[in-house]
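Below is how a single chain appears once it has passed through the pipeline. First comes the sequence as given, then the structure the pipeline wrote out for it. We keep one example in the README because the format questions we get most often are answered faster by looking than by reading.
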Amino acid sequence: MDLSKATILITGGNSGIGRGLAKALSARGAEIIITGRNPISLAETLMENPAMTGYQLDVSVPDDVRRFVAMLVERHPSLNALINNAGMMATEKVLDPSYDPELAERMAATNLVAPIRLTTALIPHFQLRDEAAFIMVSSALGFVPRGDAPTYSATKAALHSWTIGLRHQLKSTNISVIEIVPPLVATNFSPGQAENPRAMPLDAFVSEAVELLCADETPLEVLVKRVVPQRNAERSGSFDEIFGMINPT
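Resulting structure:
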């Protein structure tokens, strides 16, 4: 599918990786629609990128998503691609007496249930297009987790698994199912992440990822070179070594 000619919805397109993908794909000619939970950063993004359209949306609120999808397909009938990028990450200390599992529930609602809800709501519309694509943004932590972010890592592992199942169920349709697996990227997604010297610069990640997305034959998994060792850790037998690097004692 030629994403440069697509109409693409990017959730969480008001910051970080989502914003980077939105700007890069827009520059290639795609029509970009973004959503964001934060109205201030959403407005700033739209002001800086007037070719984009944007809507405030909390993807974890079911009724809001249903209303949004109904409005979206009416206003943007050419929509034929979705990048499920919106997410949240928090560290957890399960031995802390004050630990509240509601935090885990919020992450699961945002990182896993919301993409499922939005994707399945758009399947009927996408089936009416000549070609369409669902693109899931998972994480390298879905393959080798951070010990202090167990729920976030688990939601990304689950999203990877769900993506495989979705691809299988849609294999006889006009809809492609693609997964982007980011490594640690220098954004403000979590405290200190932008300053982490081990993080891949955002511009470098976006450039490499978009080249793969827009290749003549888009891979089922978009893997920048830096993420490959973590993605394939189980297969290569290096899981324990990489886990130790991510989670030093």
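The chain has a mean pLDDT of 97.

See the next section for the split statistics.
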